[in-house]
Amino acid sequence: YMLNKPAGYISATEDRKEKTVMELLPQQIRKIGLFPVGRLDKDAEGLLILTDDGDFAHRVMSPKSGIKKLYLVKTGLPFAEDDVKTFEDGIILGDGTKCLPAELKIVDGGGLVTVREGKYHQVKRMCAAAGKPVEYLKRLKIGELELDNTLKPGEFRELNKEEVLKIFNG
Q1: Residues contacting 37, CB < 8 A, separation 6+
Q2: For a disulfide at 48, which of 1, 5, 65, 136, Cβ 3.0-4.6 Å?
């Protein structure tokens, strides 16, 4: 399933304190044992895949798969051309963690960031390391699968076989 995750929900199957993305689904869909493939921060929006297939989820999220994830990022300070090279070289985070090379395309009010891994709060931490604090984050693509722009925040739909294959392309 493809979910257009709204801000304010955590990417988990259950939580005692926070609203989870599973609460956006009707009970008959929840019963089939879906879980989020990877994470989107509570305040982040956009494409989240839900599945009941652990092997599939692992293939999508493993850095070894090299699947690109594209994010729209709006920052408090504008990106500069030298930030593009910084992302390409692989940013070193505040704790010393080195990220794989990433792509940054500067757009009005922020950037389009493409990563091939999924470290904890990675895109936010990369932007912070570049001196550009994130104010808004939305995942637009996983592989070549794009968020269906007809889905309003909180809406979901089943993926067809061709769409699932798009995840592993690109």
Answers
A1: 48, 49, 50, 51, 56, 57, 60, 61
A2: 5
pLDDT digits (tens, 9 = 90+) for 94-109: 889 899 999 999 998 7
Q: Are strands 134-142 and 45-51 parallel, antiparallel or unpaired?
A: parallel
Active site residue 41: yes
Q: CA-to-CA distance for 68 and 101, rounded, in angstroms?
A: 11
Q: Specify the DSSP class assigned to residue 150.
A: T
- The structure's pTM equals 0.94
| Structure tokens belonging to residue 123 | 């895109």
> What is the distance between the alpha carbons of residues 141 and 70, in angstroms, rounded to a whole number?
5
Q: What is the pLDDT of residues 32-80, one digit of tens each?
A: 999 999 889 999 999 999 999 999 999 998 888 889 999 999 998 999 9
- In this structure, how many other beta carbons lie within 10 angstroms of the beta carbon of residue 12? 15
Q: Which DSSP helix (H) or strand (E) runs through 166? A: helix 161-167
Name residues whose C-beta falls within 8 Å of residue 64's C-beta, 6 or more positions apart in sequence.
none
